[in-house]
Amino acid sequence: MSRSRDVANIDTILTTKGDIYAATAASTPARLGVGANNTVLTADSSTATGLKWAAGGANFSGCQVYNTTNISTSINTVATLTFNSENYDTDGYHSTSSNTSRMTIPTGKSGYYRVTVTASWATGSAGSRRLVFFEANGNTALGAFESTVSSGTYPKISGTRTVYLNAGDYVEMRVFQDIGTVNIINSQYAETSFEIVYLGA
Fold this sequence. Notes:
By secondary structure, the chain is mainly β. The chain has one helix at 3-11, and strands spanning 20-25, 28-32, 39-43, 51-55, 62-66, 71-73, 79-80, 85-89, 103-104, 111-120, 128-136, 140-149, 156-165, 170-177, 182-184, 193-200. It has a five-stranded antiparallel β-sheet with strand order 8-5-16-10-13, with no helix packed on it. The longest helix is centred in the first third of the chain and has 9 residues, at 3-11. It is elongated, with a radius of gyration of 26 Å.
């Protein structure tokens, strides 16, 4: 077979604007159809051509949760907060029906995360001491934020840490107070909230 005939046969593979040549094996050309708008060509050994069109790597990934009701906490007792609602959850970090206290790192998302916690407390006694922190996998403290407040105030404590987490790890938000039975105040809009944002590997 002549070279010109080989070229002619290969040319018939491409059928649509934007198609490209790929190979399914040595000396075996194939058509890879054009991808959707704003997708990028990505290596993927599980496909026939070893290539695919995928969303760009800069897509946002993260989750922010809150609770719609107040949570009562007891004196000198660490309380793990639960969250029954989400402002957003891009990749299934959180469930509102199972292990609702947890933010769990999805498969393929090991890397650095910015974790932000905000706790709003009801009024307490003068000189009361408040603490909010979060832990990884139930046993590793990642950050602690403390405040001493006066009577008649509604203290809010907020803190942020950047940490490395592996797929399958989970983080929880925990609080502590030493003044009596006090509510954590909850609502959708920046009262008590828990947020995790993927920064990259």
